[in-house]
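for the record, two folds in this file. i put them one after another cuz i was lazy. first one right below, seq on top, structure tokens after. the second one comes after a little note so u can tell where it starts
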Amino acid sequence: MELSVLSQAYALRVYAGWLGKCIGVRLGAPLEGRPTQDLKEITDYLPLPAGTLFGPEDDTSLALILARSVKDYGPDATTFQIGKTWLNYLGDQHGTFRWDGYGVSADHTAYCNLSANIAAPESGAAVLNGAALAEQVGGQTCNDFWGLLVPDNPKLAASYAECAASVAYDGEGLYGARFVAALVSAAFGETDPRKLVATALAVIPEESTYARTIRALLEFHTANPEDWRSAVQVVETLVGSQDEDTWLAVVPNGARVVLALLYGGGDFSRSVRIAASAGGQTGSNAGNVGMVLGVAAGIEGIPLCWREPLNDTLSAASLLGARNLTNISACADFLCSLGRQIAGEEEPVTTPRYHFTYPGATQGFLLRTKGAAASVRQAASAQGGMLEASI
């Protein structure tokens, strides 16, 4: 299914993909780090303390920063320039992602290297930082969005993802970035999870550990199409049980993304629940899965029970404070504009800052009253949507 990036259908799929990622991250992030044996299949968001917003999370915050490289340097931005984007928009060792220490966190290490004038891609090279660090999961968690910018072009999406991920990652870490970006791009034209996985496998080396693990998981799923919990055990048999050495590794987390796609059978809710319940980087993995199935299923495939608690709101983190309290609609507009820039297509008429053309979107508006029941929702209008307040 070929979509012009200028089409409304494209914009709706981008919105659904980014929304799906936000849902998956919100669902799975509170469960990260728990032993696999302690996890039960989660069915709903864990509650937040009264009056607080969820996030910010690196899965979305760093992705929005990486996307700015296209805005600032153009569609042909190099890894060197994306490294400059890190320095331009990241706080000095605070905010956006976890700063766990030089030599402990791939992102922290890469930032310190950039600050010491070790330019990208050397900043993320395994020969400098070591393979274990270079093959952590972060390149996979934050680079799926490239698939939104180049619909139905998995190879190009993978190329963009590798270019961006190379600032901090290498080896299998780059294969994970390529794989998830290809999944998202392919989802514009395909909905079958097995076919999506096959397409994404084609953009990474056949003999890589990543590819061999995914093929083994595909074989297990063929023979055991109902038992996702046994598939988790297969993953741990192939790449090691969840511990400090494997929790952040890209291969076991990539396998969990595929596991959720296969056993979720293309159903959005089922898939993100499995991803959030299967251990490892549960928020990141569910975010990847949510983006893939958001694009594949569209808005109509995402039940309102996931959307309403978010109220279209997104909390991000960068040096640009005005962009840190944003909403999912605004992010979709931004990503669509980058897709049009990459495609070389002329921008349409400027979209109003607050609009309600994405079905069900509220742009984060709230209605507060004293004592009376009140709510906001989107309502139909001749212009395609408006916000309705009910008291």
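(here's the note) second protein begins now
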Amino acid sequence: MNALTVQRLVPADHPAFAGHFPGQPLLPGVSLLAEVMEAARAEPALQGKLERGSFTAAKFLSPVRPGSMLRIALQWDEAALGFEVHCGPALAAKGQWRWDSIE
């Protein structure tokens, strides 16, 4: 099993916060998944695998607010990438991306 942890700051002026939700800004789940994929694409060992797969599970467990620091933990093997996203002490999201194991 391979592992990597990446930290990413969610800027307070992130465009996804506009209108989502007025007075209670919240990073949409799709934007959080984009942060996970961006972190994964930066890992050379995952190059080429991500294009052959899809999310098989994603759970959103805690809100991510403007200015939050995310800790994205990635673990992968020959068949899948698992991820957890922590926002401070809270688990904000977790899930899995599976790909075709034929190379």
